[in-house]
Amino acid sequence: MENLFRLADHENFFSRPSIWINGPVIVGAGPSGLATAACLREQGVSFVVLERAECIASLWQKRTYDRLKLHLPKQFCQLPKLPFPQDFPEYPTKKQFINYLESYAKHFEINPQFNECVQSARYDETSGLWRVKTVSTSAASTRTEVEYISLWLVVATGENAECVMPDIEGLAEFEGDAMHVSEYKSGEKFGGKKVLVVGCGNSGMEISLDLCNHNASPSLVCRSSVHVLPREIFGKSTFELAVSMMKWLPLWLVDKLLLILAWLVLGNIEKYGLKRPEVGPMKYKNTMGKTPVLDIGALEKIRSGDIKVVPGIKRFLPGQVVELVNGEKLDIDSVVLATGYRSNVPSWLKEGEFFSKNGFPKSPFPNGWKGNSGLYAVGFTRRGLSGASSDAVRIAQDIGQVWKVETKQKKRTIACHRRCISQF
């Protein structure tokens, strides 16, 4: 209560509705936020989840293509305390994963405050509390500003909060259809068209494959090096195999073995314009945060010529022409920018010690989950859903320890107060 009295002294305290949260404020209702909330629920800790969209996991529900499946086996993607249903396949579909997340939220009674867009969050040194300011839009489209006040702030907006739009000369004047991958749903409307897919990560590869399956002619821009691995090797998940090997072998040797196995299964991919990085796939992921492409059929289409691999883009020319860095010019009908996403934390979190300018914790995994003054981060490990889950467990345990101590102290105070009353 002392903290609240200090806060009330501030000039603008009563300028907007303020809500005291008896527990942490979690920003983001994606898998990371849901996992943290579930673990806190198991610890008996109260919380509130703020979500700018009108649904949980908005990235999955609104910004993913129809044919998407989890790229890793389900045991590496399930959230804490509740596994996937047993009848789910090894690689659940987008719809199945969304259903799982909705069941997860229902099971742990997680009810986010939807349509709450966080404008700013800062730590108030005077009161020792976090002040999270939001703008909410109701069904009636009325704009409401609210301030949430708490001892703890959990940043769960993740690595993929905002679309990355490349700055390419002439792109704004391109006369055909141009879209970010977040808007792409299916190749159905692209049948018979020449489509330039910019970006050769998992999304770019899979969209190129989807376009082929709908009789389009995709050209895949591969500007930088990329690791391509088979999704499975001899019937076993490549990722699962790598995890198993890393328990016993050094990382450099695991990378060496993965590349040998990939060469045996896929052959030499560099002759198709796909140059491998000098660093091995697992080390590359850990240091650069770039996940290897797990091939599910795109490489076969590249071999056959159905998907044409091209180098980087120099510029877009008037009309519907693109000039590549090697001087080649392509006539195209559409452009899909599979250029990824980034963190949006710097745009709203007023803090410079824990998070860097790129929106990621400065401390590398596994130490990037806890900052100072009750600040936490979940889902920034560059290790997918398994990394987010491990963060969520640590955060809930850390907050839970303080919560239990304070709860016991409150009970003692209440009991003493009652005895005093009874004596008079």
Automatic annotation (TrEMBL):
Reactions it catalyzes: indole-3-pyruvate + NADPH + O2 + H(+) = (indol-3-yl)acetate + CO2 + NADP(+) + H2O
GO MF: flavin adenine dinucleotide binding; indole-3-pyruvate monooxygenase activity; monooxygenase activity; N,N-dimethylaniline monooxygenase activity; NADP binding
Coiled-coil ranges (or none): none
E.C. no: 1.-.-.-
InterPro entries noted in UniProt: Auxin_biosynth/cation_transpt, FAD/NAD-bd_sf, Flavin_mOase-like
Annotated Pfam families: FMO-like
Cofactor(s) needed: FAD
Keyword terms, alphabetized: Auxin biosynthesis, FAD, Flavoprotein, Monooxygenase, NADP, Oxidoreductase
Signal peptide (residue range): none
Keyword Disulfide bond: no
Pathway: Plant hormone metabolism; auxin biosynthesis
One of the GO biological process terms: auxin biosynthetic process
UniProt family annotation: Belongs to the FMO family.
Name assigned to this protein: Flavin-containing monooxygenase
Gene name as annotated: LOC109019169
